[in-house]
Amino acid sequence: xxxxxxxxxxxxxxxxxxxxxxxxxxxxxxxxxxxxxxxxxxxxxxxxxxxxxxxxxxxxxxxxxxxxxxxxxxxxxxxxxxxxxxxxxxxxxxxxxxxxxxxxxxxxxxxxxxxxxxxxxxxxxxxxxxxxxxxxxxxxxxxxxxxxxxxxxxxxxxxxxxxxxxxxxxxxxxxxxxxxxxxxxxxxxxxxxxxxxxxxxxxxxxxxxxxxxxxxxxxxxxxxxxxxxxx
Length: 231
Hints:
CATH topology of the largest domain: D-Maltodextrin-Binding Protein, domain 2
Structural class: alpha/beta
Helix content: 25-40%
Largest sheet: 5 strands, mixed
Shape: globular
Strand order of the largest sheet: 7-6-8-5-9
Number of helices: 6
Order of helices and strands: HHEEEHEEHEHEHEE
CATH class of the largest domain: Alpha Beta
Strand content: 15-25%
Number of strands: 9
């Protein structure tokens, strides 16, 4: 991505985040999300791209803007696919907690997966494990493979996943193997990116409904693997 365009995109996410900030801790996730969405959509008009939203607010939300298929940008510049979540972690903001964020991914036209709203299983790892683990493998094998390549005992791994009842079988397996678990109340994008920001001692696995955001390529700043299957 051109440096100038990357900075324009950063400004869009910044404005969305600032617009949602006044709703922090007020227990109203819908107004927080609405404020971020309106700000992001308005700011997108200044971005020099001919963009099409391929992952957006989604059919399930019946969103009035930033919906899948909507054209965004100034209608000048490169043709790109755009994936957005104006406020990833609406409940986090409503409760005044950490790790909510405004998210945009941009890639050349035809580069981003356009998937319907559904539950998806995701696996994110740091650069040391990229290409070495797979969702098609049993979880126990994945953990032992990760430990081998990271050069540490399995019990020293930390796995992050969303704290959901539907993950009870995953938690049981993790407990049996003996890894540490860090539960995420909401906001799986933050969890998926976490292994890339430092020498990873963890992997992140999660499943959630709507907007399969973790299928976006990383924004050049980090290498991480993400593969999916419907659950």
